[in-house]
Design a protein that fits this description.
The structure holds two protein chains of two kinds. By secondary structure, chain A is α+β, with helices and mostly antiparallel strands. Chain A has 16 helices and 35 strands. In chain A, strands 3-2-1-4-11-12 form a six-stranded mixed sheet, with helices on both faces. In chain A, strands 13, 14, 15, 20 and 23 form a five-stranded mixed sheet that branches. In chain A, strands 6-5-9-10 form a four-stranded parallel sheet, with helices on both faces. Chain A is globular, with a radius of gyration of 26 Å. Chain A starts with a strand and ends with a strand. Chain B has a six-stranded antiparallel sheet, with helices on both faces. A five-stranded antiparallel sheet of chain B has the order 13-14-19-16-17, covered by helices on one side. A four-stranded mixed sheet of chain B has the order 7-8-9-10, covered by helices on one side. Chain B has two domains: 218 residues, no CATH class; 196 residues, no CATH class. The chains are: A alpha+beta, B alpha+beta. Chains A and B meet through helix 3, helix 12 and helix 16 of A and helix 1, helix 7, helix 8, helix 9 and helix 12 of B. Chain A: GO terms for molecular function: 5-oxoprolinase (ATP-hydrolyzing) activity. Chain A: InterPro entries: ACX-like_C, Hydant_A_N, Hydantoinase_A, Oxoprolinase-like. Chain A: This is N-methylhydantoinase A. Chain B: This is N-methylhydantoinase B.
């Protein structure tokens, strides 16, 4: 049996799959010790731990450690003259008109920052040798006195030659063996010292936390008789065995949204859809990601709490539009939705817990798309009157009916999501009309059709159990690791040759790491060159197809680059300018083979009921189907509502929905 | 046009226009070539309506963004909107006709939908070198002609005059680093093209009428919000004053005076009493004076989320005497106009402090320190130009921000590793926060910083302009002043030279230049500073002496 346990902020979800049988369990999260909630979910599901061969886990432990500044006491060591790297940052401000601006706070204080005398040059030659005597006489005693658990080292140009970082780490470990040492060349062998230093210090900061958490989890599992493989989700969309994760903590940040994208991608692939835009609409926000040929897009940089992280992550854009997002009027008289959210408590007005704000969920109740008696399969009864009351002030303000005001709020929420989708598609040179939309999360399928119409998307794939796709993603994802190295070279035949050689070197290193993790099997590699015109500072990622690696030539690389540059910037294809390679990246993936099936729960068929929905400017009559009672290939013509246990789908007029063999509900625009 | 917009269409279109402007800005920076544009991000972008009014902006550099409408309208006066054809572009960097200073070149691309110009894609970039009397920065210029190539408000055709055309060849022939400069121009054209495309898509989706109506409504919206904020401010007339160290020739300070009158729903700022224009590059063109004033008033009066566009400026009027430092007669040199612009910002802020003490900050180091190293090697010129800020001023509730670009600008630093790759004639050997550089107070100013540069070859030229080497930033409500800046050269032969705030000097191998930009001033009395904050700064080494000990000693 394969089991995924996803710890979220409010709920801990469990999905267990075996031979097409699916168990879904939801319990309250226990934020102070997330493992308690995880084990509660395992208990509640009634699964025998001894029978689990594959347990995938995702949690917000790493993310929360940073957001709440509860990581390990960590020291930072930089090249002499650059102790303040983490405080200088990039000298810019995020909000240019904010007079009271404060920089993002790094997880160390200035008193925890130290220096080592040394200097490496950009070409890897040593300019000033490491002053080992000073390390022994001054740095090590200071580290010892500071009471640190971890130390992060980031020396200038160490990406080009890590010998000083390695030596410094060895000296520290020799003297202080209990200190966890993280070097910048281990987490990101790329240039730009502040971003690399930030990544290194964040990694050192969360590693002891992740290490302790996973160790405790492993011990508890062992006590309960578990003998399968315990794996942990990463932000890059792949898994790692828990033991390996304890050494590579930085990739555990933001693993939750990544698991959702992978789950949605796998489930959509079973219906043959590989070019996708996934959107996960939860309580406070919506996460959007573009998937090309079954592979979610990657970004080489992300940030947490304003601090940059230079490791590959799924390119997920988050926007403050969720079920709890509040509709309001700003002091210029404009109607807005979000990013403020009513959260889970008191939550939307219709939850009846004292909330009075008009939220997206209330808007659905007012317009009839969510039935108060049938929310979450009837597990939670909603207050219709409270929802109406919440929208009354807005309706009066704009001289609209309450239903119109609610409908306006929904359109604005849709518009926010549309913009997020444009950010991952149009702005990256991709046309959203070439993709299928895959909504999940509690509220996603209700909004999908209108968003699709706005973007000209013709196909929507609604996965079964749309509310627990992230947990499914934990057992449906492959094992993945990335390596990258900055090696600036002007593109010519020699550089192409060198690139091929470096790629081979990185593949060998990754293969060795997989062997160390005791993960046998054939690895699948991706090869990417970060390239730019000579003189530019930002690189465009150019993927090299595996079948062209054998005889890599400069002309071919140059063509690929020109195309990629033009796609993003609308210029560059015709420029007769020299081009350079800056960073080389290799991704290694060990496929898990056929992902487990995520089937829906099927109930006896029953005829649809009639219902009334406020759509556009008026109330319309439409059919209301029960998702679990649909039959395969049944044709549902919009307008219709398909009500399910974890999510409800809206099928507008002009759309046809059918349940396919993979249990996905496919919405197509009628020709 | 009488189209009325429902609130949804308005919200959707306006947000889409703002998103398009932001995308233009991102792409301008990311496809640029010179360090000043790609690393320091000294450029901006926006969308304008067909009348030349700013509709939406990418929030990059406040100074460049403020008067972009003035810059475009100067072009439209000569080339009316209906005379434009598809493929045309407008260009302007003329300080005396809506521009600011020579390096900031504004380019406008008309957006044609169904034969009608619905608006313009606009971008501005600080160009590393546009010719003139010295590479990157000519601090000795005594008139605008010595500061580089001037493009008066003019019209060219992209297909005919660029991409190997005559205008491109003219620019190429007159600049020292043509690869970078032409590359940056291309990044501007590309950013404009993105804006044009996005607005066209919006017009297709919603119709021209709705898009143009939304453009107008966005300006009205900002205007309403600014007027609403002014209505809540105390009414009256308030005075503020600050000064520049000197003009680089004599030792006399250059005073700048602001009289701010807050009326029911408008604000007037009069700069009567400000000193006359000067012989060196510290003159501030009208557009720059306007921009600095608008930035200050907007930052103090309104919440940061009010979109910056032409409507924002409508309730704010300025009066600037012609021939003064803040509205010079041609052909005055204006390269360092950021320095007087900052004193405009400070003088207006000090006036507003009397009306709105909780919404202002004390003076920060508040300079644009331009630091330019250049070297002529066998392969031609190599020019390095960076912009440094300093510490922010403190406010009622917060310490000033440490080591950040000053309020009117927002340049990033160049990564040291990126400079190591790109330049072989110098190396950064230190970049640190400066302890004790801020003014103490109930809240302290932000710390300033040091950047140390080792010169690796002979015949390197250094040019700087900065300020506050003589006059320190003043605190508010009993706060102490921040430290003054300096630029010091430790010569290879052991001697030390102290530079003026506006200087040019030759450097040789082994010399080390130490540039120090100071901290911000404090807010409120230092005796009211909480112990926990003092102890934090002592532990972090940002304070080297306990001010409480000194106070105690003084009391005894």
């Amino acid at each position: 049996m394969r089991v995924g346990v996803e710890v979220g902020g409010t709920f801990t979800d469990l999905v267990a799959v075996e031979d097409g049988k699916v168990i879904v369990t939801k319990v309250q999260s226990t934020p102070r010790s997330p493992d308690v909630g995880a084990f509660a979910a395992l208990t509640a599901s009634g699964i025998d731990l001894a029978g689990i061969e594959d347990l995938g886990h995702g949690s917000t432990v790493a993310t929360n450690a940073v957001l709440e500044r509860k990581g390990a006491p960590v020291a930072f060591v930089a090249t002499a003259g650059f102790r303040d790297l983490l405080f200088m940052q990039r000298h810019d401000r995020r909000n240019i008109y904010d007079l009271f601006y404060a920089k993002p706070a790094p997880p160390v204080r200035r008193k925890d920052c130290f220096e080592a005398v040394e200097r490496m040059r950009a070409d890897g030659a040593i300019e000033t040798a490491l002053d080992e005597a000073a390390v022994r006489s001054a740095l090590i005693p200071a580290l010892q006195a500071g009471g640190y658990r971890a130390v992060a080292i980031c020396l200038l140009n160490a990406y080009a030659n890590p010998v000083h970082e390695k030596r410094l780490a060895a000296l520290i470990t020799e003297a202080l063996p209990d200190l966890l040492v993280t070097c910048s060349h281990q987490v990101a062998r790329e240039f730009r010292e502040f971003e690399r230093a930030s990544t290194t210090v964040l990694s050192a900061y969360v590693q002891p936390v992740i290490d302790g958490y996973l160790l405790r989890f492993e011990n508890k599992l062992a006590e309960a008789g578990f003998s399968g493989r315990f794996t942990v989700m990463q932000s890059n969309g792949g898994r790692l065995p828990a033991e390996a994760m304890r050494q590579s903590a930085i990739t555990a940040l933001y693993s939750g949204p990544a698991a959702g994208v992978v789950g949605a991608t796998r489930q959509a692939a079973r219906s043959g859809f590989k070019d996708l835009i996934t959107f996960d609409m939860g309580g406070t926000s919506t996460d959007v990601c573009l998937v090309q040929d079954g592979r979610p897009s990657l970004a080489s940089e992300s940030e947490i709490d304003g601090l940059p992280i230079r490791t590959p992550v799924l390119d997920i854009v988050s926007v403050g539009a969720g079920g709890g997002s509040i509709a309001w009027v700003d002091d210029g008289g404009m109607l807005r939705v979000g990013p403020q959210s009513a959260g889970a408590d008191p939550g939307p007005a219709c939850y009846g817990r004292g909330g009075t704000s008009a939220t997206t969920t209330d808007a659905h109740v007012v317009t009839g798309t969510i039935r108060p008696a049938a929310f979450l399969g009837g597990r939670m009864r909603l207050d219709d009157t409270a929802a109406h009351k919440a929208f009354e002030p807005l309706a009066q303000r704009f001289g609209l009916g309450v239903e119109q005001a609610a409908s306006s709020a929904l359109q604005l929420a849709d518009a926010n999501i549309v913009r997020a989708i444009q950010l991952v598609s149009t702005e990256r040179g991709r046309d959203p009309r070439d993709y299928a939309l895959v909504p999940f999360g509690g509220a996603g399928p209700l909004h999908a059709a209108r968003i699709a119409e706005e973007l000209g998307i013709a196909t929507i794939v609604v996965p079964p159990n749309a509310g627990v796709i992230s947990a499914y993603g934990l057992v449906a994802s492959d094992y993945t690791k990335f390596d990258a190295v900055t090696r600036k070279m002007k593109l010519d035949e020699q550089a192409a040759h060198e690139a091929a050689r470096l790629f081979a070197e990185m593949r060998a290193r990754l293969a060795a790491q997989f062997a160390d993790m005791k993960l046998p099997g054939d690895l699948v590699y991706t090869h990417t060159l970060d390239m730019r015109f000579v003189g530019q500072a930002f690189e465009v990622a150019v993927e090299i197809p595996a079948d062209r690696l054998e005889a890599l030539d400069a002309g071919y690389i140059s063509e690929l680059f020109a195309e990629a540059h033009h796609r993003t910037f609308l210029h560059g294809a015709t420029l007769d300018r020299p081009v350079e390679i800056v960073t080389l990246r290799v991704g290694a993936t060990l496929p898990i083979g056929l992902p487990p099936r995520l089937d829906r729960e099927a109930l006896a068929t029953k005829p649809p009921e009639r219902t009334r929905i406020f759509h556009g400017e008026q109330w319309i009559e439409c059919a209301r189907h029960t998702a679990e009672a649909l039959t395969k290939d049944e044709r549902i013509e919009g307008p219709a509502v398909v009500e399910g246990h974890t999510a409800t789908t809206w099928v507008p007029a002009g759309w046809i929905a059918t349940l396919d063999a993979a249990d996905n509900l496919i919405l197509r625009r009628a020709a | 046009m009488n189209t009325t917009l429902n609130p949804i269409d308005y919200a959707v279109i306006s947000q889409a226009l703002i998103a398009a402007a932001r995308e233009m800005g991102v792409k301008l920076i990311r496809s640029a070539y010179s360090t000043i544009l790609r690393e320091a991000r000294d450029g901006s972008a926006g969308l304008m309506d067909r009348h030349g009014n700013t509709v939406a902006q990418a929030e990059l550099i406040p100074m460049q963004l403020g008067p972009i409408g003035e810059t475009l309208r100067a072009c439209l006066k000569r080339h009316p909107v209906d005379s434009l054809r598809e493929g045309d572009f407008l260009i302007n960097n003329d300080p005396f006709e809506g521009g600011q200073h020579i390096p900031d070149v504004f380019i406008f691309t008309p957006i044609f939908v169904a034969g009608r110009v619905v608006g313009f894609g606009a971008s501005v970039a600080h160009h590393l070198d546009l010719g003139g009397g010295a590479p990157g920065l000519n601090i000795h210029a005594s008139d605008v002609y010595q500061e580089g190539l001037r493009f008066p408000p003019s019209k060219y055709s992209f297909p005919h005059d660029w991409n190997g055309g005559s205008f491109e060849r003219l620019v190429t022939a007159n600049v020292r680093v043509p690869d970078l400069t032409i590359g940056d121009f291309n990044a501007q054209f590309a950013a404009n093209a993105i804006g044009v495309l996005r607005v066209k898509q919006l017009c297709e989706r919603y119709g021209i009428d709705k898009v143009e109506t939304a453009m107008k409504e966005m300006q009205d919206y900002s205007e309403r919000r600014v007027r609403a904020a002014i209505a809540q401010a105390p009414k009256g007339t308030f005075y503020g004053e600050d000064a520049i160290d000197d003009d680089g020739l004599s030792d006399d300070p250059l005073p700048i005076k602001a009289k701010v009158t807050i009326a029911d729903d408008s604000v007037e700022i009069d700069f009567e009493g400000t000193c006359a224009q000067v012989k060196r590059n510290l003159n501030c063109p009208y557009s720059s004076t306007l921009s600095a004033t608008l930035s200050c008033v907007k930052s103090v009066l309104t919440s940061p989320d009010i979109p910056y566009n032409e409507g924002m400026a409508r309730p704010i009027r300025i009066k600037v005497p012609y021939g003064s430092l803040l509205n010079p007669r041609p052909p005055a040199p204006v390269r360092a106009r950021m320095i007087p612009a900052y004193r405009v910002f400070n003088a207006v802020m000090k006036a507003l402090a009397q009306a709105l003490p909780d919404k202002v900050i004390a003076a920060g180091f508040d300079c644009t320190t331009a630091f330019c190293l250049s070297h002529l090697g066998e392969k031609g010129y190599s020019v390095y130009l960076e912009i440094f800020g300093g510490g922010y001023g403190a406010s009622r509730n917060a310490d000033g921000c440490d080591a950040v670009d000053s309020p009117l600008s927002n340049c990033s630093n160049a990564p040291v590793e990126s400079l190591d790759i790109d330049y072989d004639f110098f190396r950064i050997v230190g970049y640190e926060l400066a302890p004790d550089s801020f003014g103490l107070g109930a809240r302290r100013g932000g710390a300033g910083f040091l950047r140390r540069c080792e010169i690796l070859k002979d015949d390197v030229q250094l040019a700087i302009y900065s300020d506050r080497f003589r006059l320190a930033p003043e605190g508010l409500f009993g706060g102490e002043p921040g430290q003054r800046g300096y630029c010091r050269i430790f010569r290879a032969n052991g001697t030390v030279e102290e530079l003026r705030s506006k200087a040019a000097v030759d450097l040789g191998k082994g010399d080390i230049v130490e540039m120090f930009v100071g901290g911000g001033a404090g807010f409120g009395r230092a005796s009211e500073r909480p112990d926990s904050l003092i102890e934090r700064d002592l532990a972090d080494g940002l304070l080297t002496r306990d001010p409480r000990a000194a106070a105690k000693l003084a009391a005894e």
